[in-house]
Specification:
binds fe (ii) ion; Purple Acid Phosphatase, chain A, domain 2; five-stranded mixed β-sheet; 279 residues; globular; alpha/beta; 6 helices; six-stranded mixed β-sheet
């Protein structure tokens, strides 16, 4: 393949607290974001864009967004963010005035053109509630935005997964009107991928025949309790992000999602010596 792929990094569920506060009394989410930003800055080749798919703050308060802004300052890549259930639309609008919102108020929906790709960021948050829902404004905007082209591949981003993942306390707060999203997805073959957050762990399924992922978090993971054995819990598992890699090509090209561990690791080391033989 001759053309350079487009790299879209996705990070999710940052849960930034006010300085010196730990999430759930245990997790230093600020340190976790610092490591995440360092990993993004060090990645070679540099990602073309970063999408932050919700839960940027935790409770949410203005000091949390101020802390978040300071933590994101070292990020050397362009980025956009959508709210999750732990966010405030108003505080996010104030924290990120450069955001190209589709509407003057209400949901923070955004469409971004990245080369030959459209990134469609949907606000699935419901103010004051943990579950997700795409309201009538977002659904109308989404359908019209997707109808504006037939041949540009589009990647959708939203916080709440539109599918059951098997973790009971998260499934009851996923996207409530997934059927309305499904109706729109069926109408637009140019949707190549749907990327979500909320569950803090890597998950892959198909949604209306399109690949659909949940991005892991830089901090803690929701416990993979698939049999309702425990009260809602979390584990501090290896932190990671997703790197959606779009290769131009026939039709809509091809999208490959890599999971990238956050942190510094030994290597890279060569497989082959100066003589061309395997070491
Ligand atoms: Fe969430």
């Amino acid at each position: 393949m001759s053309s350079k792929p487009l790299l879209i990094a996705q990070i999710s569920d940052l849960h930034i607290k006010a300085p010196a506060s730990l999430a759930y009394g245990r997790v230093d989410t600020a340190k976790a974001l610092e490591r995440c930003v360092a990993t993004l800055n060090a990645f070679d080749p540099a990602p073309d864009f970063v999408v932050i798919s919700g839960d940027l703050a935790d409770t949410p308060t203005a000091p949390e967004y101020e802390h978040l802004q300071r933590l994101l300052l070292p990020l050397r890549l362009p980025f956009a963010a959508i709210p999750g259930n732990h966010d405030s639309r108003e505080l996010m609008r104030a924290a990120f005035p450069q955001t190209h919102c589709a509407h003057a108020s209400g949901p923070l929906d955004q469409k971004l053109e990245l080369g030959a790709l459209d990134l469609v960021l949907m606000d699935s948050s419901v103010p004051g509630a943990p579950h997700g829902e795409l309201d009538a404004t977002t659904l109308r905007w989404l359908d019209a935005t997707l109808a504006s082209s037939r041949d540009r591949p589009a990647l959708l981003f939203l916080h709440h997964p539109p599918f059951i993942a098997g973790i009971w306390h998260m499934d009851r707060q996923n996207l409530r009107n997934a059927d309305e999203l499904a109706t729109i997805v069926r109408r637009h073959p140019r949707i190549r991928h749907i990327a979500c957050g909320h569950v803090h762990r890597a998950t892959l399924t198909l949604f209306e025949g399109r690949s659909c992922t949940i991005c892991p978090a830089p901090n803690h993971a929701v416990d993979l309790d698939l049999a309702q054995l425990r009260e809602p819990s979390f584990k501090v598992e290896p932190a990671a992000l997703h790197l959606h890699t779009w290769f131009p090509g026939e039709g809509f090209g091809n999208l490959v999602t890599h999971q990238v561990p956050i942190g510094e690791f030994d290597g890279p080391h060569p497989f082959f010596g100066p003589d061309g033989k395997l070491l």
